C-alpha cells in the first residue's frame, strides 16, 4: 500500500502551529496542538476590504495597479455627488493619500491612463456640462497642461502609459466611437470602435486594447458588447454575461476582469464581477458594495490582483461611497483532513 512518504519522498511533518498558507501550498502536516492533520490549498479569487478613500468620488480619471493607483477629478460632495472636483488621491495598497489638486478647472467623466508617477487626465466635462479637449499630465507631485486631444468629449475612458496611451468613446450624442492614441506629446486619431459607447471600461495598450460594456443612448442602459484592438482595427468579441454600464476593469486583452456598473433601465447597481480569458466571460465573485457611475479601478492591474473604489452605491440619492475593495487570486487557505 502506498504511503505518503512513498509518494512524496518525505514523512508527514509534526508542527506545533500551522505554517502560513502562502508558504505551504500542497503541504500536509500534523498539528500537534490541535491533534489533527492539515493541508493547504489554493481557493478561488475573492474581494476583501481595502483602505477607504478620503473623499466620496465618482466619474474621475484613474489608473495604476493594486498597490500603486490613483484618481483625479470626478464628482464629489456629501451626501450627493453634484460638484466637480480637482482633488487627487493615490493608494499604496493600504491607505489613500490626498495629493495636489488638478489644474485648469474641475472635471469629471474624463479618461485617465498611466501610473501614479506619470499619469494623463484627458477630456471630460467642465462646469456647465461643457465637453473639453484639454489634457493634464501628472508627475507624481503636480499637474500640468499639455497638448489637447483632437475631439472634445466627455464620458471617455483611457488605458496604456503616459507615453503610449489610448482613449476611446464618449459623448455627446450620438455616442462617440472615435479613438485616439497618445505618444507622450500629441494625439493621433486611429480606427474607431465598431459600436459607439460612453463610460465603458478600457484596458490594455495602444496595440492590444480591450473595450467592454458601457452605456447606450439614453445613458441608463448598460451594454454587453466587447471589442478588442490590435493596433490597426477593432473586432467584436463575445459579450459579457450581464450588462455593465458605467463599470470599471483591469487587465489585458487575454486576461481581464470587469466589475460593478449598472445593468439596465432604472440604473440598478450591480456587484457582479466577470473575468475574460481572451475568448469568453465568466462570472467569478460579487463585490461587497454594488456601485455604478464609473468607480475607479487599477486598470493596469491583473486578474490576480486588482482593486475598485468610489462610485455611487445608492440608487435613489446617488450617494457616493469611499469604499475600496481589493481583488486577490488565488486565496490561500488551510484545511483540516476529515474522515467521512
Describe this structure as you would to a colleague:
By secondary structure, the chain is mainly beta. The chain has two domains: 4-42, no CATH class; 46-328, 6 Propeller (Neuraminidase). 1% of the residues lie in helices and 38% in strands. It has one helix and 34 strands. The chain has one helix at residues 4-8; strands at 13-15, 28-31, 36-42, 46-49, 61-65, 68-72, 75-76, 83-84, 88-91, 96-98, 111-114, 119-122, 125-126, 130-131, 135-138, 143-146, 157-161, 164-168, 179-182, 187-190, 202-204, 209-212, 226-229, 234-237, 248-251, 256-259, 273-276, 281-283, 296-297, 305-309, 312-314, 319-320, 324-328, 332-336. Strands 1-2-3-34 form a four-stranded mixed sheet, with no helix packed on it. Strands 4-33-30-29 form a four-stranded antiparallel sheet, with no helix packed on it. The longest helix is centred in the first third of the chain and has 5 residues, at 4-8. The model has no long low-confidence stretch (mean pLDDT 90).
Task: Throw out a few tags for this protein.
340 residues; Neuraminidase; 2 domains; 4-stranded antiparallel beta sheet; 34 strands
Residue runs with pLDDT of under 50 for 5 or more positions: none
Please tell me the total number of domains: 2
Tally of DSSP β-strands = 34
Structural class designation: mainly beta
Described by its quaternary structure, the protein is single chain
Number of helices: 1
Strand content: 35-45%
Question: What is the alpha-carbon Rg in Å?
Answer: 22 Å
Give the CATH level 1 class of the largest domain.
Mainly Beta
Distance between the termini: 21 Å
CATH topology of the largest domain: Neuraminidase
Helix coverage percent: under 10%
Q: How would you state the average pLDDT, rounded? A: 90
Instruction: Identify the overall geometry.
Output: globular
Amino acid at each position: 500500500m502506498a504511503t505518503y512518504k512513498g509518494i512524496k519522498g518525505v514523512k508527514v511533518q509534526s508542527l506545533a502551529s500551522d505554517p502560513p498558507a502562502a508558504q505551504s501550498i500542497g503541504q500536509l502536516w500534523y498539528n500537534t496542538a490541535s491533534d489533527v492533520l492539515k493541508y493547504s490549498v489554493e481557493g478561488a479569487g475573492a474581494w476583501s476590504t481595502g483602505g477607504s478613500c478620503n473623499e466620496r468620488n465618482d466619474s474621475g480619471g484613474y489608473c495604476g495597479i493594486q498597490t500603486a493607483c490613483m484618481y483625479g477629478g470626478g464628482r464629489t460632495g456629501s451626501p450627493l455627488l453634484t460638484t466637480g472636483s480637482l482633488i487627487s488621491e493615490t493608494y499604496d495598497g493600504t491607505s489613500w493619500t490626498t495629493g495636489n489638486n488638478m489644474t485648469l478647472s474641475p472635471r469629471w467623466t474624463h479618461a485617465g491612463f498611466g501610473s501614479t508617477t506619470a499619469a494623463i487626465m484627458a477630456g471630460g466635462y467642465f462646469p456647465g456640462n461643457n465637453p473639453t479637449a484639454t489634457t493634464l499630465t501628472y508627475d507624481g507631485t503636480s499637474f500640468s497642461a499639455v497638448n489637447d486631444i483632437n475631439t472634445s468629449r466627455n464620458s471617455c475612458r483611457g488605458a496604456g502609459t503616459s507615453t503610449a496611451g489610448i482613449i476611446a468613446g464618449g459623448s455627446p450624442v450620438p455616442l462617440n466611437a472615435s479613438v485616439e492614441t497618445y505618444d507622450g506629446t500629441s494625439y493621433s486619431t486611429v480606427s474607431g470602435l465598431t459600436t459607439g459607447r460612453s463610460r465603458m471600461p478600457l484596458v490594455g495598450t495602444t496595440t492590444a486594447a480591450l473595450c467592454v460594456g458601457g452605456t447606450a443612448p439614453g445613458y441608463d442602459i448598460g451594454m454587453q458588447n466587447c471589442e478588442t484592438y490590435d493596433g490597426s482595427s477593432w473586432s467584436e468579441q463575445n459579450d459579457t454575461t450581464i450588462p455593465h454600464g458605467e463599470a470599471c476593469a483591469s487587465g489585458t486583452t487575454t486576461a481581464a476582469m470587469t466589475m460593478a456598473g449598472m445593468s439596465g433601465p432604472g440604473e440598478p447597481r450591480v456587484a457582479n464581477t466577470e473575468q475574460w480569458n481572451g475568448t469568453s466571460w465568466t462570472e467569478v465573485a460579487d463585490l461587497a458594495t454594488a456601485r455604478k457611475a464609473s468607480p475607479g479601478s487599477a486598470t493596469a492591474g491583473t486578474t490576480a490582483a486588482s482593486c475598485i473604489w468610489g462610485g455611487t452605491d445608492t440608487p435613489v440619492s446617488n450617494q457616493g461611497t469611499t469604499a475600496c475593495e481589493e481583488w486577490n487570486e488565488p486565496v490561500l487557505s488551510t484545511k483540516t483532513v476529515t474522515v467521512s
